[in-house]
Amino acid sequence: MTDRDAAYEKPYGYHEGFNQCMLGQEPANMGRPQQTYRAVKCTGAPHFAANRRRFCEDFQVSDARMSEDSTRVRSVSGAALLMEFAASRGLSAPSLLAETGIRPDKLADPTAEITLAQEIALIRKVVAAVDDEPGMGLMAGLMCHAPNFGVLGFAVMSSPSVRRAAEITIQYADLGVSFAEHRIENHGPEFRFIRDDHAVPADIHRFVLERDIAAISTIQQDLLGTRIPIIRADLTAEAHPIYEMFATLLGVDNITYGMEQTVLVGHASSLELPLPQANSVTAHFYEKQCAELIQRRRTRTGLSARVRELLIRHGGVADQSRIAADLDVSVRTLRRRLAGEGTTFREVSNETVGLLAEEMLITGLTVEHVADRLGYSSVSAFTTAFRAWKGQSPGTFARTNRGRAAIRV
Description:
With 409 residues, this protein is of the alpha/beta class.
């Protein structure tokens, strides 16, 4: 272990490096222990212990609720950024991805999708690898920038105002980094940005909260070139010296920790600030693409939705015996249950492969590459299948639609 590695073992020891990151400097002295901290109003919630008990009880319930959401299909962008953070910490990609069901090639695939359960499994591995150390989520969030999120990022960047950018981000959250739920409430001259963590398991709650807040701050600064000051912040995280970074990120001195819900309060007028890259035509174009992507991912429900998600996990290349094994049922049972939903394995498989093919072609992959990726024996076989789906050749479709979707959709 190097002296630098040893320094990371020290509690509260690396927030000086955060300050350098915020200034755009290389955190060469990350890990040095600091004895002083900038004065920030950091208070605990009333009846702190009781609140924490209720908080933990809520998360026990949330794990059950989360199981209902675990098959949600999400963009791979959040996982890809998480792996970039892991690489910056010197963590092994193969060991982190093992048993998550996420193939390494998916992280660089602009058309790839994963389930929420897969994303949570990866986050758990990263959190364990960094010893669940406070502040690591903040570092991960600082790596998030609007263009990382493809059509969602461009829709946000071209929005007319901060408010509209926030609304789009909330509406199409599954194309972004956060899987917590958020809403904006107006209260006279103030707005409240309220977070619901029911989909976030308790063991990764702190890391995900840190990451999401840092991501929000970083992207907002990218959009405006400055930070919108927050009047008050109530955070569910417990107080820790490293969290003086929350004050820096949010531009707030009034922070209360140990609360039952995370709420950021700011001046309502700040949400009406125009964005420098606002363009109504561009915004409409990318918002439409966001809506189309989400609609495609949510069309199916029940077993057919699970089959579709497993097919996506296998890159579209899996027969019904493989899918039946993944579901721990017989092929006969799989057929019967799909028939009960008015569909067949062939229909779900063709639909899924067709959607994957469309997204690959849209992002610029060649017909030959797409045919190979989807397991076709020849380009002609793929072309025949694609013509049956879309009524046109894959080459014609690609020329007409290329560029509609951007990176990491």
